[in-house]
Every structure is written in structure tokens, then in C-alpha cells.
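Consider the following input, taken from an annotated entry for NitT/TauT family transport system ATP-binding protein (Melghirimyces thermohalophilus).
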Amino acid sequence: TYAIEADSVTKVYLNRQDEVHALKPISFRIHPGEFVSLVGPSGCGKSTVLSLMAGLIRPSSGCLRIFGKEVTAPSNRVSYMLQQDCLLDWRTVEDNITLGLEFRGRKNRQTSHDARQLLELLGLRHTLKLFPSQLSGGMRQRVALVRTLAVEPDLLLLDEPFSAVDYQTKLHLEKLLTDGLKIREMTALLVTHDLEEALSLSDRILVMGGQPGEIRRTLEVPEELR
Ligand code: ADP
Ligand code: ADP
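Applying the prediction step yields:
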């Protein structure tokens, strides 16, 4: 089975009385373990594609399947990371990271152990008892990445996760992401405006645009560019 199968998926938003045709019928398939980037101009429908996969909105027509199952609601197998870190300011770093695990019904002790291991790996161990407001922007996004990976999703959805951090932090986070993905064989779909990022991370790039809501072309990324 494919990790993702989109068959003639469309999305029409209703804005008061107006219909916004955000996606023309789009179709594509992504294999398990593949890393695919989605690039294209603002407003071409990239976030809409991710929201559909996350089960946050439903297609207006067509069918979207994740690991063979039609997406009808948010799934435990999918983890979503955004540009803004969405950390909860009233919970410590550790409690932010375990939040996702708690939602997924893991036992607390194991949760805590997993979180500590990941933080150790990322050099964040000394931040466990701190609150997000005590961290720099780059550190916060690092914590957000740990939280996203900690639930060991089968599918990782990333919407410009590194666009608000400085260049060095971005490179570091990209490295952590690829290391994390290698260990766990996750499938990933990344929305980005950053061509270098798309090239260095992806197996394949879907270019949206031309007409809004269309996939204009698909590029295989040669090994030597990564
Ligand atoms: P991108 O992520 O490529 O910038 P989006 O998926 O956010 O594109 O948006 C695609 C189109 O759909 C845009 O015209 C946008 O204004 C519109 N759109 C997105 N979300 C909504 C919404 N909730 N209601 C109405 N229109 C929306
Ligand atoms: P991006 O280009 O980074 O995707 P946008 O500014 O297009 O960001 O969209 C940010 C959020 O606003 C998204 O969740 C999108 O669904 C929503 N949105 C975009 N356009 C509209 C719109 N015309 N009406 C309502 N919500 C919208």
C-alpha cells in the first residue's frame, strides 16, 4: 500500500457566499518512507493539502487515503508541525513534549523516559524543567521538533517548520529531522518556500502553481543534490 494516495481530490472553501476553489482535482501517490516536498507560490493550496492529510478538513470531492485508509478524521499515525512552535507556555519543556504522547494514551513513565532520551540526543536535557518563555526561538522550535518526533508517527506533516529560525539553527534542525527519519522510517510531506531545503531533504518535489490548486510538475531529486 501507499503511504498517501490522493485521487482527484478537490477543495472548495465557502467564504460567505463566495466559493474559493483552493484545489483543482489533484492526484498523487507517495511511498512509505519517502520524503516529498510541496513548493509553489502563496495561495496555491499547499496548506490545504496538509490540512486534508491531517484530517482537519474534508475534501469537497475525490478520495484521500493514508496507508490505505480513507482520511475522515485526525489520525494517531500522523504528526503535524507548523512554523509557529505552538508550545504551551504554562507547561514545562518536558510536559510539552509528553503532551502528544499522553493524547496517544502512552503510560506516563515510558513517556517520560522517551522524552528524556530524545532531549538528551538533541542536547536539550538541561531545559527539561524550564518553561518555553525561558528559551530562544531556535530552542523552542527544537523542542517542537522533539515533540513531533516523540510520538513516532508514520506520517510527518511539516508546514514551513524552519522558516522562522536562523540559518545555523535551521541546518541543525534539518540534520535532526533526517536522522530521526532514518531511524524510524517515517514518511514525510514538507511545505516550504526554501528551495535549498526542499532539495537537501526530499526524494521528490511536487511543484504547485501555474494555475492555483494544481500540481504543475513533479521533480525527482538526484541523490548527489541531497
Ligand atoms: P498556500 O498554503 O499555498 O499559501 P492555502 O492552502 O493556504 O495556500 O490557500 C489556498 C487558497 O484557499 C487561497 O486562495 C486561500 O485564500 C484559500 N483559503 C485557504 N483557507 C481558507 C479558508 N479556511 N476559507 C476560505 N478560503 C481559504
Ligand atoms: P500560508 O501561505 O503560510 O499557508 P496563509 O496566510 O495562506 O498561510 O493561511 C494561513 C491560515 O489562514 C491557513 O490556516 C488558511 O487555511 C487560512 N486562510 C487562508 N486564506 C483564508 C481565507 N480567505 N479565509 C479564511 N481563512 C483563510
